[in-house]
Description:
- There is one protein chain.
- The protein has 155 residues and is α+β, with helices and mostly antiparallel strands.
- The protein is 23% helix and 30% strand.
- It contains 4 helices and 9 strands.
- The strands form 4 sheets. The chain has a 3-stranded antiparallel beta sheet with strand order 7-8-9. Strands 1-6 form a two-stranded antiparallel sheet.
- The chain is globular.
- Mean pLDDT is 80; it is low at 1-7.
Amino acid sequence: MNNLQIFEGDLLLTDTLDGGxxxxxxxxxxxxxxxxxxxYLSLFxxxxxxxxxxxxxxxxxxxxxxxxxxxxxxxxxxxxxxxGLPMSTKxxxxxxxxxxxxxxWIIDEGIGDEVNVNGSATARNKFxxxxxxxxxxxxxxxxxxxxxxxxxxxx
Length: 155
């Protein structure tokens, strides 16, 4: 069985400059049985004030529901870095580490066996994050997210 066949999917979200948008065709929500939306939610879902370093009052409300396992919780450490820290070489590395942690569930759940993230400043207050997920040496997901770094420019 293909590892992606065990993934149940989400509503399809499309990355936009001001966040993710759901997709409709003839007023019907489109589903995403790939991991595209799950990766997006892992990086940009949850509460941007929750850095995931300690249990705190900023956790996303969905994480507090009964029956939510640790792998199902959305922390979005990556989002906390780009919203909470100034852009610097050190913080770009922190953003890469946070993104890898947010995507660790893909390895834990056996969907992929390698998650590579690479962040770079492309302009003042602009940041790109490349995500490449592999299973058995083959690419199963490649995407690049371009976004403003919310806290400020390169220091």
